[in-house]
Every structure is written in C-alpha cells, then in structure tokens.
Amino acid sequence: MKKIYSFLLITLFSTTVLSQNSTSASGDRMQWWREARFGMFIHWGLYAVPAGEWNGKTGYGEWIRNSAEIPIDVYDHFREKFNPVKFDADDWVRMARDAGMKYIVITSKHHDGFCMFGTDQTDFNIINTPFHHDPMKDLAAACRKYGLKFCFYYSIMDWHHPDYLPRRSWEKFRPVTGAEFRKYVFYMKAELKELLTNYGDIGVLWFDGEWENTWNEKFGKEIYSYCRSLQPNIIINNRVGAGRMDMEGLTKEGAFGGDFGTPEQQIPATGLTGVDWETCMTMNDHWGYNKNDKNFKSANEMVRMLADIASKGGNYLLNVGPTSEGVFPDESIERLNTIGGWMKVNGESVWGTKASPFRSLDWGRCTRKEIPGGVRLYLHVFNWPETSNLILPGILNEPAKAFMLSDVGQSPLKVTRFEDALIIALPVQPSDSLHPVVVIDLKGKLDLTEPPRIVSDFNAFVDSLKIKLQTDRENVEIRYTLDGKDCDLSSPVYKVPFYIRKALQINARCFRDGKPVSGMNSAIIRNVDAAPAVKVNNQAPGLSYAYYEGNWDSIPEFSGMKPHKEGVLPNIILNPATAKEFYGFSFGGFVNIPATGMYAFYTESDDGSTLWIDGKKLVDNDGLHGAVEVEAVVALKKGFHSIRVDYFNKSGSDGITVSIRSTTLKKQVMPDGMLFHEVAK
Ligand code: H79
C-alpha cells in the first residue's frame, strides 16, 4: 500500500505541541493580563533632568546617580529642575491605547528613591518640585477614561532612604549608623498603601531592585500578601521575591515567584509551560530619557517581537522614557504610531491569543484562538515564501477557511492538502513593510502529527527502567517496538507503563483507524554498571571543608593550597566564609547511597563549582557566571561513595546548592542525612 503520510519529511519541520499555561487558582485574576499581551512601560523620574549626560559623558540613564557617582545632595537639586509643563496624561494614555497597548506600568519610584507620586512618607517626591502636582492622579484618571489598566513599578532598592542598606560602595558621606532595614520595609509598606488606596484599581505592581542581599524571600512574601490584602485582584511580578535567575527573569525552582516572570531585554527561546511571563524591553538602549541615544529599534522589529512573544505565550512591555518636560521622545511617538497602524489591522492576532502549537515554523510565527467548533490560527508571515505557497506542516485538521487579516472582505485563500501538510496559496505580497498575518480556521480540536513522548527517569539503567509512552492527542493509539524495527499494525499497542531490563531501542508512533498519524519517536536506552561502594571505617555526619581566599576565574587546584580555615559542616554551605568576594571552598566526604541505581547530581552555583564522585569529575559547572544549574548522571551501588564539591566566588552575588535525584528520590536539595565524613576510631 502506498504510504499516505510522509512523516519523516515532516519531522524536519518539527511540530511538537507546547502546552498551554495551566489555569490555576490565580486564573481569573490573571485573565485580563493574559489577554492583554501588550503594555507600555514608562520610566519617568528625576534622571530625565540630566537626560543621560553628566560631566561630558553621555551614556547614562535612570542609573545615572549610581553610574556617574553623583552625591546625594547634588542629585537632590534635580528636583528644582523637574517641571513637566508639557505633561498631558490624556495624550500619553491615548498614544498607548492607539498603539494597541492594554496597560501602562509607570515608575512610581525608581532606584534613586524619588517618588513620582504625592506621598506623606518622604519630602523627596514630585509635589516638592516646581510642578507641585501628582501626575499619577491624572494618569490613573486617563487610564480609566480610555479603558487601560493602570499599574505601578516600585523599586525595592533605594539609594536615598536612610534606612535602606547597603549603601553604594562609592558613597563616602552617607554613614550607616542607626540605619535599620526593617524600618525601610515599614516605609515601603506605607508607600504601597498610598499607591494602592489613592489611585483606584491598580492592575500590576511591578517590583524591581530586589537583588541586594538585604532583601529576602520572607520580606517578599510579606510585601506580596500586604499588597494583595489591599487589592485582592492585583497582579505582582516575581521580583517581589528573591529567587529571580539573572536577566532571563524566571524564578528558581522552589523559590517564591509572585504571579509572573520578568525576562528583561530578552525573549525566551521557546514557549514556557505553565508559567506566566512578560518581556520588558527598551525601544533604544536606555529606560530613562537619554537625549543622545538615537539607537531605536524599528517599528517592524518591535512588531515582530510582539508576535514572537505572543507565539510563546508571553506579554510584551515596551518602554518609553519621557523628558523632564513631560513629553515622549519623537522617535518613540513615531514608532508607537506605526505599531498602532499594524495593530489596528492585526490586533486580534495578538490580543487574547494563546501560544503557538508549533515549536518552530521557518517562515514566521503562529498564535491561536479557540473558535466555535474549531481553532483559528494566526500565521505571522515574516518571510514571504518565494512560491507564494505557505506550508503548515504536520496538521491533520480539515481547513474551514483562510484569508488575509488585512482583507476586510476576507476573500478566501485556496488551501490544499499535501500529505500531512496544508498549503495556503497566498496572494501577491503586500507592499506594507510590517509583516502580514494570514488567518486559517480549522475544524475540530487541533490535531498535529505529534509522535508519542517516551518518558523515563533516565536514559540508562542498572537493573531495570520504567518506561511510559504519552500523547495528548485524541483518538489515537500508541504502538511501539523494542527491537529497533519500525512500528506498524503488527506492533503491540501501549496500555500501561512497562519495565525494560536490557539495552535496547524503543520506537513509538501514533495510529488512528489503522493508519499511522505521526512520525516515529525513538529512544536508545543503555544498560550500565554501577560503581562499587567504598568501605568507610568510622563515619560521622557532615562533610569536612577547607576554606580558601584568592582571586580566580575558575576553580583552582585547592589541594595544593593552604586553607584559611578547616572544619566540618552538616552540608554544602558557605557560612564559614569570612570574605564576601574572592574566596573558595572544597567540601569532602561520603554520600550514602540508599539503593543501587542511577543518580543525578546537580550544582547550582554563582560563580563556578564542580562535583566529584568516587574521584571522578561528574558535574562541571566551572567558570564565572550567575546562578546556573548543571546536571550529571552516574550509576552507583548501594553504600558509601566519596564526594567532593569545589566552589569559588570571584565577585558579585554568591551561592551554591547541591541537589540529587534518583528513581526513588524526587529531585531535592542534598539531605544532611546522606552526607558523612570519616573520623579516626
Ligand atoms: O528599571 C529598569 C532598570 O533600571 C532595571 N530594571 C529595568 C526594568 C535594572 N536595574 N538593573 N538592571 C536593570 C541590570 C542589573 C543587573 C544586575 Fe543582577 C544586578 C546584575 C547583577 C545585579 C539581577 C541580579 C540580574 C542579575 C542578578
């Protein structure tokens, strides 16, 4: 019989289904935000007065007080020059609305500590400028008028409040005597209370500046609950906590992460399962107004980023840095206009859409919406196909209709099927420089030719390994082989998880009505020998450690060096370190393995670390970096195995977490109870 579907070819197009955001308890509260997809960030503060220039240098933005090391009393004088006489809240909000943005997040207070709202908690606020007026009141009213959500950015880090710690390293004239961080937290709460009672409903509280070591998860949870107690439906970003990983902006596993992740100046490479996220981004190279920065992205680029982000299930928060007179830079206005023109025609391909069901499409991006009896896909065509045939690979639904979103008359485009691909005949390429969107409506539940997933704890085993085969598709059966042969109708149908006890290749494929409806997925499973345990004569809990000081870019040969300190610790912890920077540790001892099998070890460290088992380097997480986790797997026999963990910190933040996972232990921080060192009898 002639093969109907050319799946091998189709796998090249890669058609893996990405899961949608799970609907959680926060579902209803998050709904408007998930549908909005596009918002405006506004960085407006005293830093607009110097406009990015200080002592002849022009590269500054909202960080100017810190970067140019401006003393506090000098900076305070910017207050006298902040007079936004051209400020018109209606103008700003209308520009955001006309660009297709559904919410505005504005800096109520940035790191410089200057409050852009009327507050009773400090004199360092906008009422004490020649403006003598609270612009946040006007913006709140304008947002209500034009139907946008009004949201506040609020910096935890504060370079002005006497109780905020630490001071900037270069600040000589601000003594810390008497400063109490707890009092600063009370100050924050008093200001947040004003922000959450004086301006009506606030959509989002967008915290930032949480990374200094005075802030912790406990404060984060306290502030989060406090804000929710004042406005139960408010949405709060993950920077309220202390578990953000770098500028990728997502929260570390197990840490408190508020309501959404905050990638900054970057877009995740793929969609993210079960997390809400928002990429914030500048139009040029600064958040605050910089009069010399003309390096603006084009509207075309930004519209593509919006489509890219929506196709991955995220939001785009695009920044404008207004001047101290209260106007948007001309370049920003132009771009907002152009983006708005595109959104007027194509907005429905962004608002209220969900992530693409395709992992990648070589011509562009896809977003989707449920429609009665089917699914609507929005195809964002970045690269117009030379043949004018747009290929939608690996999809079995029957098309209902297709048309250009810009075509008010919705003249139907011809759709044909070739094997498991749909081919849409596009009209003449539009002359508009911004990308066009093609709509295709499909009948029934989305049915991509997705092969089954082969799921197991490891891809190797000592004695046996449990295998599960999974698919999210309806009306399919999974057939599989364990002898390397292709799956066909004579292959067994998968019903329940099974164990394998020898090295082999698993092939699995979906079938429907006696026909294959997916490509084949394969996994090679290896059988490995477990390393023998070692004999320990007399063990006691904990690991021995040696602490060193030095300036390294990677882990040095600790064994040849003289430690500053030595001793025993219950686990891999950095408490004995007396230096904040330029130090290292070597921990040594034994890990007591509870049962013979495969074990995954992890180190997450800032900066580098290595983990050795039985004298061999297993986890290599060396080098200068922020918190990064590396996994490595080894087969071990029940009993004691030697373990060594080396770690170093050059400068900046520090930390290490060692975790373990096996078939019987879910991934967890290495328990104290598994660690030992040898002692004399
Ligand atoms: O308000 C804008 C910027 O002023 C602010 N966030 C945006 C929205 C911002 N502050 N700092 N940065 C951006 C960059 C700072 C990066 C670092 Fe870190 C702080 C590197 C080391 C400490 C945070 C914690 C990122 C990595 C670890």
Task: Provide a descriptive summary of the structure in words.
The chain is α+β, with helices and mostly antiparallel strands and 681 residues long. α5 (89-98) runs parallel beside α6 (135-146), α7 packs parallel to α8 (217-230) and α9 (299-311) packs across α10 (330-346). Bound molecules: ligand H79. Ligand H79 binds next to loops.
Number of domains: 4
Bound molecules: ligand H79
Strand content: 25-35%
Based on the coordinates given, report the CATH architecture of the largest domain.
Answer: Alpha-Beta Barrel
Shape: flat
The CATH homologous superfamily of the largest domain corresponds to Glycosidases
How many individual β-strands?
A: 36
Structural class category: alpha+beta
| Main sheet record | 8 strands, antiparallel
Mean pLDDT: 94
- Count of alpha/pi helices: 10
Kindly provide the radius of gyration, computed on alpha-carbon positions and rounded to a whole number of angstroms: 29 Å
Give the N-to-C terminal Cα separation. 76 Å
User: What name does CATH use for the topology of the largest domain?
Assistant: TIM Barrel
Query: Percentage of helical residues?
Result: 10-25%
What is the CATH C-level name of the largest domain?
Alpha Beta
Outline the low-pLDDT stretches: 1-24
In short:
With 681 residues, the chain is α+β, with helices and mostly antiparallel strands. The chain has four domains: 34-344, Alpha-Beta Barrel (TIM Barrel); 364-443, Golgi alpha-mannosidase II (Immunoglobulin-like), CATH 2.60.40.1180; 453-527, Immunoglobulin-like (Sandwich), CATH 2.60.40; 539-678, Jelly Rolls.
